[in-house]
Amino acid sequence: MPWESNGGGGGRNSGGPWGQTPGGGPRRPGNTPNLEDILNRGRDRFQGGFQGGVPGGRWAIIGGILALLAFWGLNAIYTINPQEVGVELRFGQPKDELSNPGLHFLLWPIETVERVTITENQTIIGSGNAAGSRAANREGLMLSGDQNIVDVRFSILWVVANPADYLFNVRDPEAMVRAAGESAMREIVGRRPAQDAFRDDRAGIQIEVQEITQAILDSYQIGVRINGVRLENAAPPSEVADAFNEVQRAEQDEDRLQEEARQYANTLLGDARGQAAQLREAAAAYTNRVVQEATGEAGRFNAVFAEYVNAPAVTRKRLFLETMEEVLGNSEKVLVENGAGGSGVVPYLPLPELRSRATTTSTTTSTTNGSGN
């Protein structure tokens, strides 16, 4: 055998390389044991370590195999919770089908499973995200379109739409959602005045941020769907909050005074328009009355003229009588007839004054009688 030539004496040693015969004889002084002796002694020790010799070793082997099978079964059988889905990997390559909630089996170790939570997640971005951290407190500070600084706090609601893309396309999907949402919010706030974020168009900002964030995530194929964006708070930084509030109050006072001025102007304008309409109506009524009277007078004149043409003498007398009736109807008149003696009247007798006194006396008497009753 090869080791027979390694005795150190050029073939003079008939034993093995360790100074012992291949048959297991005693080791000669100064020589090492041969390989066969070492293998025999190892086999004897292995068999002697179990009670009963070889049968005990067989049960130990069976027990070891059963333990290995149990360990393999624990890794080959897995459970998916109701809020999760599983992505099975074969040699590191994800399968197309997903594992729904329940008990499943795979060929471990060539197949493994990755679990993904499919419930809705919320990522909060802004000053209230991490109290005590200066970087987190500055996270929501953004520059608006009118060169104002706005401290924005908002949240992004998202779910996993494609578990395989979510697991393997991006190293940290949640950080990617945060970065995309913050970038979209800064873009929208930077294009709008600060008042839009404060109160004027918060809903419009939320919609635009959601659309831009979803477009960014789709470009990276992250497998995430944005369900909504909520703008929870938008305020000026604490360092300038007092000055900003003063500006807001001044703007509110300006709006209030302008509204009061508009109301006063509308009141005056309404009154003026009412008076103008009243004057126009009065003028129209006067015009109509004058026209109607003139038309009536012209018709009456035409009728009288027609009668005058037919009977001039009668018509002249009638016009005279009517004119005298109209003149004397509203004047004081005293009729004096000659008496039986024919003496006539006193040259001056204030008959109208006497009549006025008589009328006053009768009025006073009537009033006194009415009071006494």
UniProtKB/TrEMBL annotation:
Origin: domain of life: Bacteria
Compositionally skewed regions (Low complexity) per UniProt: 359-373
SMART domains xrefs: PHB
Span list, region Disordered: 1-36, 354-373
Coiled-coil intervals: 240-289
Stretches with biased composition (Gly residues): 1-27
Main subcellular location: membrane
Pfam families: Band_7
Localisation per UniProt entry: Membrane
Signal sequence annotation: none
Mode of membrane association: Single-pass membrane protein
GO MF term list: peptidase activity
Alphabetical UniProt keywords: Coiled coil, Hydrolase, Membrane, Protease, Transmembrane, Transmembrane helix
Residue ranges constituting the Band domain according to the UniProt record: 75-248
Record-linked InterPro entries: Band7/mec-2_domain (IPR050710), Band_7 (IPR001107), Band_7/SPFH_dom_sf (IPR036013), HflK (IPR010201)
CDD domains assigned: SPFH_HflK (cd03404)
Gene Ontology terms describing biological process: proteolysis
Similarity remark: Belongs to the band 7/mec-2 family. HflK subfamily.
Subunit structure as annotated in this protein's UniProt entry: HflC and HflK may interact to form a multimeric complex.
Function text: HflC and HflK could encode or regulate a protease.
UniProt cross-references to NCBIfam families, sorted A to Z: hflK
Protein's name according to its UniProt entry: Protein HflK
Source organism of the structure: Devosia nitrariae
